[in-house]
Amino acid sequence: MEKVVFGWTGEKVSQIGLGTWQFSDAWGVKDYETAKEIIEAAYNLGINFIDTAIVYGRGLSEEFIGKALKELGIRDDIFIATKIPGEMLSRDDVFRAVDRSLERLQMDVIDLMQVHWPPLWNNFPTYEYIGALEQLVNMGKIRYIGLSDFPVELIDSARAYLSTTDIASIQIRYNLIERDAEKELIPYALREDMVVIPWSPLAKGALTGKYTPENLPQFSDVRGNDPIFRPDNFMEVYKVVEVLNKIGSKYGKTPSQVALNWIITAYPNMIPIPGAKSVEQVKANAGAAGWKLEYSDWRELDEISRKVYINRVIY
Ligand SMILES: NC(=O)c1ccc[n+]([C@@H]2O[C@H](COP(=O)([O-])OP(=O)(O)OC[C@H]3O[C@@H](n4cnc5c(N)ncnc54)[C@H](OP(=O)(O)O)[C@@H]3O)[C@@H](O)[C@H]2O)c1
């Protein structure tokens, strides 16, 4: 797998990363051996960027990663990104949370600590948690700081409080059918040499081609309430999947591989982090890199996906 430069940090990471929210109740991979096999397969495929978070399985995902990297002896080869939730952003909580993550991950330093989402229900001022994170960088517990699900105004405000480092990356919802980030966040990050890490790059499986309007399951996992899978919306999404199927057969690629390739063809500085529940899925997702969609195929997907409107109004 080819490596790309992680923005202004100069670090080299794989073009495709591994999302590990899957190691939780939300997605259902809760046995350690499966998680370890997925991590090992990712490593063998050249994937060296792993995204996790404190809240994934309430620490389970971090715990599995820490144990697996130790047993496989590959800690130094992996760039690990984790996240502190918006509820744990008082100054003292930031220090405690980082200490706990370091313990679960069995590491001395976290490569990228991201703020998972801004404080919503607690009135933690931005300077307080950003200042605490900067101190942790200065003391060598964190190497870089990233922000996830932050609007541009708040990214600017966070950066204004940093003096010895800067924000290295932003993580956002981005995939072929959820493209709002193109309006403000992506141009902002490109201009500032920050990496963009698209989450749900397969639209939680909706773009993989294995779900059709005729066989749409009643999901018992995190997708149960996701508007993408509501039959009226999914009919729209499926128009894109049909084109992914058609273009995929031209290249001998799966719809998932085409959907991921569409992102990195347009934006080489993006590092999508598809989640995998099995070794087969991580292998398939790695096959999204190392080739390029032709311009006309990229454009066809661009146009059809632009027409998709996901209705999120439920009441
Ligand atoms: N910062 C944030 O707020 C935030 C939010 C969400 C996610 N994330 C991060 O982003 C990562 C990815 O997002 P996500 O998990 O929401 O969605 P995703 O990557 O778009 O979709 C993952 C799901 O698609 C299916 N899948 C994956 N690869 C496949 C393949 N090759 N063939 C067929 N099916 C495949 C699997 O589910 P099934 O097999 O059950 O269909 C898998 O659980 C997460 O693991 C997490 O690290 C961050």
At a glance:
The protein has 315 residues and is of the alpha/beta class.
What proportion of the residues form beta strands (DSSP E)?
5-15%
Identify low-pLDDT runs: none
CATH topology: TIM Barrel
Radius of gyration: 19 Å
Distance between the termini: 45 Å
Trace the largest sheet across and list its strands: 3-4-5-6-7-8-9
User: How many separate domains make up the residues?
Assistant: 1
The DSSP helix count reads 10
Q: What CATH architecture would you give?
A: Alpha-Beta Barrel
Largest beta-sheet characterization: 7 strands, parallel
| Ligands and ions found | NADP nicotinamide-adenine-dinucleotide phosphate
Query: How would you spell out the order of helices and strands?
Result: EEEHEHEHEHEHEHEHHHH
